[in-house]
Amino acid sequence: MKKSSWLFYMILIISTLITLSSYNWMGMWIGLEMNMMSFMPLILNKANKSSSEAAMIYFLIQSVMSMIMFMMIIIEHINYNLSKELINLVMMMSILTKLGAAPFHYWMPTIMAKMEWNKIILLMTWQKLAPMMMISNMNNSMVINLSIISSVMVGSLGGINQSSLRKMMGYSSINHLGWMLAINKFVSLWMIYFIIYSVLTTLMCKYFMISKVYFLNQMSSLNMNNMEKVNLFIMMMSMGGLPPFMGFLPKWITIQNMINNSNYFIMTIMIMFSLITLMYYMRVMTNMFLSFSTTIKWMTNKKNNALMLIMMIMNLSLPLIMMLDIM
Prior knowledge:
The protein has helices at 5-21, 25-43, 49-77, 84-99, 107-112, 117-124, 126-136, 141-157, 165-182, 187-211, 226-239, 248-260, 264-290, 305-315, 317-326. By secondary structure, the chain is mainly α. Residues 295-300 have low confidence and may be disordered. Keywords: Electron transport, Membrane, Mitochondrion, Mitochondrion inner membrane, NAD, Respiratory chain, Translocase, Transmembrane, Transmembrane helix, Transport, Ubiquinone. It comes from Erthesina fullo.
């Protein structure tokens, strides 16, 4: 399986590009099916009980939603006596379920708790691209607004009592998905959000993968030096969207866009619940900062040296961008 995994990665990329470049629903559906069938062997890369359960849950959710979507495409094509609004509603709900957006999110944190970090990175980043592009081509503001509010609330409240870092990152992903759906109609804007979010998430999960950390209580036993602690703290704050770090930029863009479109009510809910996400990001770092450090040296571990440098540059680049913009 490991020798042939490059083939599945290639099909995964090609299938997403097929969905993005299709001009009709059938082409998009074919791309999504190819994407599902290439992602499942990647989940099963290591044959154990957890990965098998994750692959089965993923297959059931994605295949059922694909069948519902396909049925709606056929009904629309044959001009069956069914209202256009109902067809769009069912299709929108099926795509949101495939995406893992609330209130259709229950499967996502469950399978993330059973997967490896490198597969989690794919699920939280690349796997969102095709469904998000499909939603941007649809028009059902009522369902989107409901999903935005639900995703922001569930993503914030769901991660509070989590001891599993993988589940916490899953709820964080749901929260960020609500912000991306808020600017979904403007492709260039949500793509900026998606790229910054993907880079930050990848860096965070890569650090967890290198450190072999899966639960909150393992963080205090990492024996990090001060430089790594400060760097990881900045990373967490950036993920929560705290200024002046890089993670604030996409949220700033979203807030400005919603003000321009007079979406004050939804924007207020989103800002309020983003404070709760900051709280559970801080929980990850609190124990480490309060615990006694075994070293006073401000130098990084050699195995994490490059990753730490990238994280620092990425998160502290926003003030520089703002200064250049002012000048």
